[in-house]
Amino acid sequence: MGEFVMPSLGADMDAGTLTEWLKHPGDAIKRGDVIAVVETQKGAIEIEAFEEGVLDRPLVELGTKVPVGTPLAFIRTAGAPAPSPVPSEIKLPETPATKPVAPPIAVSVAPPAIGRRVSPAARKIAAEHGLSLEGLKGTGPGGAIISTDLPQAARAAEPRAAKKPGIDLGEMRKAIAAAMARSKREIPHYYLSHPIDLTTAQQWLADINAGREPPERILLAALLSKAVALALHAFPEMNGFYQDGAFRPSRPIHLGTAIAIRGGGLVAPAIRDADTLTLDGLMAALRDLVARTRAGRLRSSELFDPTITVSSLGERGVERLYGVIYPPQVAIIGFGTPAPLPRVVDGKVEPRLMMTATLAADHRVSDGHRGALFLLEIERRLQQPDTL
Amino acid sequence: MNEIAPARIKTTYREAVRAAIRDALTADPKAFLMGEDVGHYGGCYAVSKGLLAEFGPERIRDTPLSESAFVGAGIGAALNGMRPIVEVMTVNFSLLALDQILNNAATLLHMSGGQFNVPLVIRMATGAGRQLAAQHSHSLEGWYAHIPGLKVLAPATIEDARGMLLGALKDPNPVLIFEHVMLYNMEGEIAADAGAVETGKAAIRRPGRDVTLITYGGSLAKAMAAAETLAKERIEAEVIDLRTLRPLDTATIIGSVARTRRAVVVDEGWKTGSLAAEVTATIMEQAFWELDAPVARVCSAEVPIPYPRHLEQAALPQPESIAAAARATLGR
């Protein structure tokens, strides 16, 4: 019997609210299946299973906020005995099929044991405020839990618009504040900057996209991400986590991709195994991530997986950005907004499409010399877009 | 600076209805009253006492004992431009005129493609409590509230008795006014210049935050008494007087229940298929998620209203049964 626990979805998450079960007791679970949805500071996150088996029974009620690590459900692994059936199950006497016209027999069937009664108003308020009904004493008719049995705070707040699942920008701001303050407090950043000529890459993209409909086109962001992912093969000290006083490099390359939220805030969910994806696959993953981020529906693994972060300013930005490393990662790449600039090529001044790439890296793990080589490797790969 | 308080007069529900009829007949030469014993006898509940001498037999008309005939005559008069006020002794007898009310008064506007409206007002007594036994004591206003094409009013206060008739006479379509027999002797003060009142809106007769008692007509005083009892137990009941039974003022009902989260519907009709059922269903449809308790109903026992006083009283909603139902919604 395995436990399915409230995961940590970031360095500073200490609790989450269970809002939805997507699997039910008795459902077969495969590794990676999305089992439940948890409301966190980063929005509603889909939680995946890491074990094979059968979902046994939930241990936490919907709407309950529990600390990270709290078991949410048991997962019965193969070979484990099934638990005894629920005792309240009622078996109706079978009517013999051969006597369909037999007069109805007065069978006294005990009504199913009524669970705890909760009034419609109390249910609504609890759901809106994510309150647990656990441990509440009901004072309504028949001992029902009614609106006034809920904590005062929730009732005082009503009436208010029903809280939609998704991103709470206020909470997200708190999460960003905590993570960034910790980063600046703990991580000795060093910064490097390097201009990269994107003329060739841009031309190559234009050729590729010429015959494509807008939804199928590859954007520069995908090309940049792929270049970073491949460059990381030679720079393992940029990819991984600094935890408990030591650096733990990561073999998989999961690119945290900074996505701005309309109205403020940002998240950097992972494009998993970015180095193994084709450009088209990476572009699709990017589109999917952006769409789900804006809808406030990300998966747990996407949030705690990133091994490095890439932040691109895109077309409407400035020349360069200096990133703040997202702990416990050890590096963040920043791509400024590409702009045509004069540049000397083969002894002549030419207009070229230039972009400034920056690296902020953790000096506890790497030094500026390696960081510079890393940026140069990214530049080198971007000059050969057909190899990406 | 002193304000001059508006003059108030002592009166009764009966006198208020009479004053309204007098106003109507004075204001509009096309208005007249007709019904059984409304003239020489002065009305079986003495509402029209004295009006024959005042207005003459053309305008205070005694009719033969045929509800179908004189309600039909009222419809005909209304179609021809008159403003008849037809009095039916009790709702029980109105069943003899049900065909006229439903198939003609309520339907002609529709059947004529909007050409003929029926500006008819029918007043009738309703309800139990006077030991008039099962053929004179029922509350069937809920049946009439079922019928499209009718407006159904239930004045429960002296102000409404004074003012609703005048509004009803302005309506181009048929209006039924139900006067509970136990209200006629009710005494109280109203403004000396009291007149027409707005219809179509329910009234909150007593504000409260714990439970809403929804009622009308003859049960209003009982609900108010129940609220008084509950107040001593620190239960603040809000009392809604529906006033208009068709169309129902749903907004006031739902607004109140959304605040109190509990409702008790009090209706002197029988529970099965009652107006109380309609109000309850409306709450379920529109305020289910606001509720903290099942909606309760206090209605008459499902028997013909008994003659013996103790049985009659036992069959009707009473302040005690209303208060008990309210307590139950609070889990007490």
Structural account:
The complex is a heterodimer of chains A (388) and B (332). With 388 residues, chain A is α+β, with helices and mostly antiparallel strands. The two termini of chain A are 44 Å apart. Chain A has helices spanning 120-129, 152-157, 169-186, 199-210, 220-231, 279-295, 300-304, 368-382; strands at 2-5, 15-21, 28-29, 34-40, 43-48, 53-58, 65-67, 71-76, 189-197, 240-243, 246-249, 255-257, 259-260, 266-267, 270-271, 297-299, 308-312, 331-335, 339-345, 348-362. In chain A, helix 5 (220-231) crosses helix 6 (279-295) and helix 5 (220-231) packs across helix 8. In chain A, strands 9, 12, 15, 17, 18, 19 and 20 form a 7-stranded mixed beta sheet that branches. In chain A, strands 7-2-4-5-16 form a 5-stranded mixed beta sheet. Chain A contains 8 helices and 20 strands. Chain A folds into 3 domains: 2-76, OB fold (Dihydrolipoamide Acetyltransferase, E2P) (Beta Barrel), CATH 2.40.50.100; 120-157, Dihydrolipoamide Transferase; 169-387, Chloramphenicol acetyltransferase-like domain (Chloramphenicol Acetyltransferase, 2-Layer Sandwich). By secondary structure, chain B is of the alpha/beta class. Chain B has 13 helices and 14 strands. In chain B, the strands form 3 sheets. In chain B, strands 3-2-4-5-7-6-12 form a 7-stranded mixed beta sheet, with helices on both faces. The A-B interface holds A 119-124, 138-144, 146-148 and B 261, 288-294, 328-331. Chain B: Pfam families: Transket_pyr, Transketolase_C.
CATH topology of the largest domain in chain B: Rossmann fold
Helix amount of chain A, in percent? Answer: 10-25%
Overall CATH class of the largest domain in chain B? Alpha Beta
Number of distinct beta strands of chain A: 20
Instruction: Just name the CATH architecture of the largest domain in chain A.
Output: 2-Layer Sandwich
CATH superfamily of the largest domain in chain B: Thiamin diphosphate (ThDP)-binding fold, Pyr/PP domains
**Low-confidence sequence ranges of chain A:** 83-100, 105-113, 157-165
The radius of gyration computed from the alpha-carbon positions of chain B, rounded to a whole number of angstroms, is 20 Å
By CATH, the architecture of the largest domain in chain B is named 3-Layer(aba) Sandwich
Largest interface: A-B, 16 and 12 residues
Determine the CATH topology of the largest domain in chain A. Chloramphenicol Acetyltransferase
Summing up helix and strand content along with how strands pair, one would put the structural category of chain A as alpha+beta
Secondary-structure-derived class of chain B: alpha/beta
Q: Residue-averaged pLDDT of chain A, rounded? A: 82
